[in-house]
Write a structure and sequence with these properties.
It is a single chain. The protein is of the alpha/beta class. The chain has 2 domains: 176 residues, 3-Layer(aba) Sandwich (Rossmann fold); 138 residues, N-(1-d-carboxylethyl)-l-norvaline Dehydrogenase, domain 2. It has 15 helices and 12 strands. The chain has an 8-stranded mixed beta sheet, with helices on both faces. The chain has a 4-stranded mixed beta sheet with strand order 4-3-10-9. The radius of gyration is 19 Å and the shape is globular.
């Protein structure tokens, strides 16, 4: 399968987000290689990716590799990192050993540290702000929760700017059921999304009641205070809502409730992976607080609880909001 844009899209981390992005690009004529491990690699190799949306189930024979080296990245390829943030360092080391340093690396992950890590090893790094409700709990199966547009994937150069490559990638994503546009200040959006992701640990620990509780508001307030102390610019809630409203203008809604059963952190616990991304979400706020003299007790608690749950392979929802409030004192 070829496309006049040239080059391939190597999706490094073919879980919920990577499977959805890679599957949609493949469906729309782009050359795609998924990089996966273990049972996910085995399932994607045979019988292939099962991509489930509101009205269709697609069985896609997307090429798959079990390592960056096996994908054989070329200089004109685009690598989209969709691993969890705790796996970024290892993925980048493996990619650096196999790829030209001029290969394009797009960080489509939660948190704001992935791009910084990538820039140590690669010259052409792009940040992508991902709004894409998707679920991956069973090897080879990815469910998406929105339709007919699958999600929003805006991107730009890191640390700032846009160029022809950003425009080309955004065009490919727009042609593949996503809303995507080049954004010269996309890190403002990623910092705003990090505030939303501070509720991931709450969702994982307590279920939907956690994100709806006062603890999320307190975690977010700590994050905003840290941003102000550090002089970090971030998009407003109103700007985020305005971008999401463009989905609704296209008639998009939560058309498949089962397509998003919990946050990425919740899904890590549900799969029993043994790791979780809290160090790069709540932990990012804790780091900023310690550097700039801002107290972050709620985020410290959520980071600690999430890590314990992952380490001990506890089931999501093992805590109540009252349990966490009691620990805060």
């Amino acid at each position: 399968m070829g496309h006049p844009d040239g080059g391939r899209y190597i999706i490094y981390g073919a879980g919920a987000i990577g499977g959805a992005i890679g599957g949609r690009l493949f469906q729309h004529g782009y050359d795609v290689v998924l990089v996966a491990r273990g049972a996910q690699y085995t399932a994607l190799r045979d019988p292939g990716l099962q991509l489930i949306s509101a009205d269709t189930t697609s069985h896609l024979a997307v090429p798959v590799a079990d390592s960056a080296a096996a994908a054989i990245p070329a200089a004109d390829d685009v690598v989209i990192l969709t691993t969890k943030s705790q796996d970024t360092a290892g993925a980048l080391r493996e990619l650096a050993a196999a790829a030209d340093p001029d290969v394009v690396v797009v960080c489509g992950q939660n948190g704001v540290d992935n791009e910084r890590q990538a820039l140590r090893l690669f010259r052409r790094v792009y940040a992508m702000c991902v709004m894409l409700p998707a679920t991956y709990l069973e090897p080879g199966v990815v469910e998406v929760g929105w339709g007919p547009a699958t999600g929003i994937l805006d991107l730009g150069r890191y640390p700032a700017g846009v160029d022809g490559t950003a425009e080309r990638i955004a065009g490919a994503l727009e042609a593949s059921t996503f809303l995507s546009r080049p954004d010269a200040s996309v890190m403002r959006r990623k910092y705003q999304k990090l505030l939303l992701n501070l509720g991931n640990s709450l969702d994982a620990a307590c279920g939907p009641a956690g994100r709806a509780s006062e603890l999320y508001g307190r975690a977010k307030a700590e994050g905003e205070a840290c941003y102000r102390a550090a002089g970090i610019d971030f998009a407003s809630d109103e700007q985020d809502k305005a971008r999401r409203a463009e989905l609704r203008a296209r008639g998009v809604g939560a058309t498949r409730p089962g397509g998003f059963r919990g946050s990425s952190s919740w899904q890590s616990l549900a799969r029993g992976t043994g790791t979780i991304e809290a160090d790069y979400l709540n932990g990012e706020i804790v780091l900023l607080g310690r550097r700039h003299g801002v107290a972050t007790p709620v985020n410290e608690l959520l980071q600690r609880v999430a890590n314990r749950m992952a380490r001990e392979r506890m089931a999501p929802g093992s805590y109540t909001v009252e349990d966490l409030l009691a620990q805060l004192g």
